[in-house]
Amino acid sequence: MRRLLVIGLATLFFSGCRMDVAAPVEQAPPEQRVEAAALQADVLPEVPAYYGDYRPNPSFTDDRRLRNPGEVWRDSRGEMEVLKATGEQKRVDGGAAELTVRETKILRYEPDAQPEFKFVKLFVEVQNTGDEPVRVEPVSEMVTDTGETVHWQEEIYGEGLGGMLAPGQVKAGNVGFILEDTDAQVLTLHAGAEGKAEIRF
After folding, report:
1. Rounded CA gap, 75 and 17, in Å?
2. Is 58 helix (H, G, I), strand (E, B) or coil?
3. Which stretch of DSSP H or E encloses residue 66?
4. Below-70 pLDDT ranges, the chain
5. Is the distance from CB of 102 to CB of 125 less than 8 angstroms?
6. What CATH number is attached to the domain comprising 148?
7. What confidence tens digit (pLDDT) does each residue in 83-105 have?
8. What confidence score (pLDDT) does residue 15 get?
9. pLDDT at 194
10. Beta bridge partners of 199
11. pLDDT by residue (tens digit) across 127-162?
């Protein structure tokens, strides 16, 4: 019941924040933008190359530079803290659709003026490797070693990675699920009917 309430609140909040697209540096007064950008660059490492031209989801604090447990970043959207992270990359073959998990994090997020919650976030790429259009769902189900199960309908990022992919088409972005128990050390991902992989922290 609590999970449904948190998911409902998160969905309502994030769906209402889609127009907030300015980055924290862009929101600073003009005379402080260079200083703010320099500070951001000094505090955290560079954005990993696999993000490519991905633009951060406007409803969430940008966590691309957060790579290690204990790192915290705050911007105009709220505060994000890394609880667990792994850069281990996993490839999941789901028939004609191929899923590559680039990074996995368990995060604590406190949106501005909203209750905090904890969730798992995966940055993934999905590709249609076949000759025909195919319907994909990057993570149809995820099971933790602590016994928690989440399904694709509970996904909170909503970056449009699921659905039909044309032959050769590639999509990249985030998939996220609220977790009740963040003590998980192993996540078992199911991608469609065939694909399966384990992520270990």
Report:
1. 14
2. coil
3. none
4. 1-43, 94, 193
5. yes
6. 2.60.40
7. 999 999 999 876 778 899 999 99
8. 44
9. 72
10. 187
11. 998 999 998 888 999 999 999 999 999 999 989 898
- Torsions phi, psi of 147, nearest 5? 95, 5
Residue 39: domain span: 2-200
CB 102 within 8 A of CB 171: no
CA dihedral (181, 182, 187, 189) positive or negative:
positive
What's the distance, CA 164 to chain centroid?
20
Q: What is the maximum alpha-carbon separation in the chain?
A: 54
What is the C-alpha to C-alpha distance for residues 179 and 127, in angstroms, rounded to an integer?
Answer: 27
d(CA 179, CA 145): 12
* C-alpha–C-alpha distance, residues 175 and 157, integer Å: 6
pLDDT, position 123: 97
Question: Look-up: residue for tokens 């050390």?
Answer: 185
Rg from Cα positions in the chain: 17
Query: Structural domain tally of the chain?
Result: 1
Contact 93, 192 (CB under 8 A): no
> Hunting for tokens 């609220």 — which residue is that?
178
d(CA 48, CA 58): 19
Q: Give alpha helix (H) positions in the chain.
A: 2-15, 24-27, 33-43
Can you read off the two tokens belonging to residue 18?
């889609």
The length of the chain is 201
